[in-house]
Amino acid sequence: MAREQTARVSPTAYATGYFWFRQGMSHPAFATPQGKRLDRAFRVLTGVTRRLSGFSLDALMLARHKGIDAQLSKAIDSGRIGQVIEIAAGLSPRGWSFMQRYGDRLRYIETDLPTMAACKRALLLQTGSLSERHQLVELDALSSDGPDSLAAVAKRLDPDVGTAIITEGLMNYLDPASARGVWQRIAETLGGFPQGVYFSDVYFNERVQHPAVIAFGALLSAFVKGRMHVHFKSPRDLAQILKGAGFKRVRAVRTDAIAATREYASQRGGDSVRVLEAWA
Known about the structure:
Protein name: Class I SAM-dependent methyltransferase
CATH architecture: 3-Layer(aba) Sandwich
Keywords: Methyltransferase, Transferase
Oligomer: single chain
CATH class: Alpha Beta
Shape: globular
InterPro entries: Ppm1/Ppm2/Tcmp (IPR007213), SAM-dependent_MTases_sf (IPR029063)
Helix content: 40-55%
Strand content: 5-15%
Structural class: alpha/beta
CATH superfamily: Vaccinia Virus protein VP39
Pfam families: LCM
Organism: Solimonas terrae
Low-confidence stretches: 1-7
Number of helices: 10
């Protein structure tokens, strides 16, 4: 994500929006015509990648999404979390599905850059989900101040209620310096609540990837017009960097340790992602 990309909706947002619908996890409103076309194209590319390498992008996406869902649900059910900010939510169904599940027990703010936010807002209006408790607002994760900053959006929430912040499929688009700035702002924001936790997908570059997977990553980078970054060498490296950004407790949860994602952990791709859980 970058500031100059505010003028368009990312093709990957449309494609993943349709992917969630195809998996039976989303509202039909998110199944756009653009998404259907792009999903078909991505299925060809990911199919070739899987045949050549055994790597399943579907397993990766389902593992990361359902893994974050499971850890967020656990935090809400424990009573520690009652509010959520999702950064760069795209056409993810998470806000809609969690409000369906928790209703008045939860307040959920989805955020994105202006054009994507306008697109998502129009689709959410079709679901009837938007309300005082479920909002869609503009936010630039790279802004350190101003009305589109994380700090400004967080002021919409109750400072006495535990809060979670989520990023999914975002951080690998950011260069290391930008990513660290985002993590610092998330930790600082969560520090203003009685309980604060950050959930995200996380990857480690400690294993050499199959050439077909590397080629697919290069193709995806060209498609989104930006380089993909793997920020951590190992779980120890992750803990050091995130604690340096201001988090107190950091762990990377394996997909085979989460009941909702165990079936994907046995597949190549599903075993490559972990769920980051960092408490501020």
